[in-house]
Amino acid sequence: MSARVAAPGSVNRAGGRACYARCMSGRPAPNETEISTSAPGTVVVFDFDGTLVSRDSFLDFALRYCAARPLRLFIVGCFVPLAVAFRLRSLKSAGSILLWAMTVGTSTRHFVGALRRYAQSTLPRYTNEPIFAELTRHLGEGSRVVIATGTMPLLVRALLNARRLGSVPVVGSRLRRRWGGLVAETHCIGGTKRFELKRRFGIVEWSTVYTDSFADRSLLSRARDITLVDPSRRTLSRTRRLIGEATALRVLRPD
Questions:
Q1: Which domain holds residue 163?
Q2: Percent of the chain with pLDDT over 90
Q3: Is 45 inside a domain boundary?
Q4: In this predicted structure, what is the pLDDT of residue 179?
């Protein structure tokens, strides 16, 4: 019924098709290390949106992308009521409706190019440098660091490459092409992060988690050390109730 991107004809060369399919599907980049099942003492998991960067990266991209294209903004606006209706049943379905409206009739190559330009020129303005310093510290100590995010891996990798951290593995949301546009194949939030860590890298245990959201409770409940990044009072309270006394919890609030 549907196929993963790239669509036939969107790229001329087989290598190019593979590149665009990898960008959308979340498969590893050539320099990204596959990780076998690891002991919990060696794995550190970082969230991305709200943690390594100070905003929802794909939402920010989407708003800018549509604002620069009035006709596209109109098309997306027409589908907002339908997305709101579907949101009561499935956040993934609601997001797919708006994503499809944003991309229908647009080639994968064009959309990937827009994502990359955003990641290279705009996203670096919103990095949380103290959290990147923590990531670099863990790498320097020999820990296995992985990023688990609800955004598209392409955005994460582009930012990591700019900071010469391109070998850090990433799991994130995957897209596929359907009915002339893009829709979500997986929305990598909540328990899906745990599933994707196992599926992609064989990671079933970890020692440390950095996140801003209690939506990552499936990761938090299995960690020995937790860093909450600028959490709300509710997130902090719920996390304290979730974890045991043996779990170390700290709060970082980047300036």
A1: 14-55+126-252
A2: 55
A3: yes
A4: 84
CATH assignment at residue 191: 3.40.50.1000
pLDDT at 41: 55
CB 205 within 8 A of CB 222: yes
pLDDT band at 24 (very low <50, low <70, confident <90, very high): low
Specify if 166 maps to a domain. Answer: yes
pLDDT at 7 over 50: no
Structural domain contains residue 3: no
Give SS3 for 45.
strand
- Distance of alpha carbon 89 from alpha carbon 91, whole angstroms: 7
Mean pLDDT of 149-155: 93
For the chain, the first-to-last Cα distance in angstroms comes to: 48
62 in a domain, yes or no?
Answer: no
Structure tokens at 89: 């049943």
- The residue written with tokens 């709101």 in the block is 84
pTM, 2 dp: 0.82
Contact 65, 72 (CB under 8 A): yes
DSSP single-letter state for residue 188: -
The one-character DSSP state at 54 is S
Domain count, the chain: 1
Identify the pLDDT of residue 106. 83
DSSP label of 33: P
Taking the C-alpha atoms of residue 30 and residue 147, their distance in angstroms, rounded to an integer, is 17
Identify whether the C-beta of residue 97 lies closer than 8 Å to the C-beta of residue 223: no
Residue 141 buriedness (CB in 10 A; 0-12 / 13-18 / 19+): exposed
What DSSP element (H or E) covers 207?
none
